[in-house]
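User: I'm preparing a small set of examples for a lab meeting where we compare how different chains pack in three dimensions. I only have the primary sequence for this one, and I'd like the structure in token form so I can line it up with the others. Please keep the answer compact; I'll paste it straight into my notes.
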Amino acid sequence: MSRTFRLLILNTDYPEFLCWLYAQHPGLENEPYDEQMRSRNESLFGVADFYSSNLRRLGHEAWDIHANNEFMQRAWAREHGIRSDQPSGILQHWIGMLQATKRAMPKAPVRYLRRLLHPLVDSINGRPRWFYDILEAQIKHYKPDVLLNQDMGISSRFLNEMKPHVRMLVGQIASPLPEGEEFGCYDLVISSLPNFVEHFRRMRVPVELHRFAFEPKVLSHLSDGYAKIAISFVGSLSQDHQTRVQLLEHLCARLGLKVWGREAGGLSKNSSIRQCYMGRAWGIEMYQILYNSKMTLNHHIGVAESYANNMRLFEATGVGSLLVTDWKTNLAEMFKEGEEVVTYRTPEECAELVRYFLEHDNEREAIARAGQKRTLREHTYYQRMQELGDIVHARL
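Assistant: Understood. Below is the structure token output for the 396-residue chain.
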């Protein structure tokens, strides 16, 4: 059996990111599908094309689909003669609002963004007919050996109906499990969280551990010459991250921390984070912030429990910032604590570490360099795609 295969990757994007992306590229919504995909990939947001490009380097055929991007999906449908239901009605409303909000968006009040994005959010939550019409046509068009679904909130009933058109259905998840979905439709689930791996094993769903990584090509998009940031945090501030919010409030009240993130509107009016809040940062902007930072703070979501797993571990070390992360039982499997990253167990210890390394430049820089070397040596998406290829080949 050939060791190469055809893989179709399904993903969805945050509505706020889509609004930002099209605001950065006026008229992009009218461009051909390939041009919209190119701009989406060049944003470097999320995993961009890090899976597909490295799978192709390994000799496989691979394609990305951003299933909730109506502009992009309808462009694909037009170019392939696919008819779906009428546009959802948000398109022209959205286009008209984009440029007017471009400059204000980084620090726009969340209540304003909610008004702007409300039709889009409703459309996505409701999964309109076009979403599944076009997705079905794409699956039948590409005829993948492997369908990798990175949004397990996509209907399991729909995916079950698509199984005759693929050899293997793989789900990927490291976020709170979606309610109301059946996971038995998957031939395999992959997760970067060991506790999720154990959860699916108890459910008798085939599962493998598969960690996040860093894409080295990001480094060629970063620029020197910006003012250095002493200590940064980039990440979500949602209700799923209450211990994170408490940590940041402790640090913001005591240190010159700069915070970028989503869902800051949920913070209390008196939260000390508000004085440190710099807005949102997507893709290449996020990487540039990490690159400019002497140190960057990491804190895991509650569903991670006692395990290290998130993307920031590899993004921060990959660009050469000193990673200050919450201690987890399995962190030593990825990095040497105190030599490649530094860890804290309490807000007080975190503040103490930050103060120490702000005063000890040589030691901080040595650990940051060692962390970057480890990531570039062992934690790249090329290596992860080699691992994924082996996992898939063993089960096809």
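A couple of notes for your slides: The chain has two domains: 6-213+381-395, 216-378. Residues 50 and 121 are 26 Å apart (CA to CA).

User: Perfect, thanks.
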